[in-house]
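## retry 2 of 3
previous attempt timed out at serialization; input unchanged, resubmitting
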Amino acid sequence: MEHNPEAWLTEAASAAQQQGPGNLLRVVLIVLVLGCVLTAWFLLRGYKRDD
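## retry succeeded, writing output
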């Protein structure tokens, strides 16, 4: 199997045209929410007190 980035990009572009913007937007929103949750957890865990 030969690695050809141009063929991969062409295939991804054609798949995106078939799916439409809905699925891409859904994935972007899910990644955004998960990133915010993980960032908040990472930042807020330092404020936990062990008394």
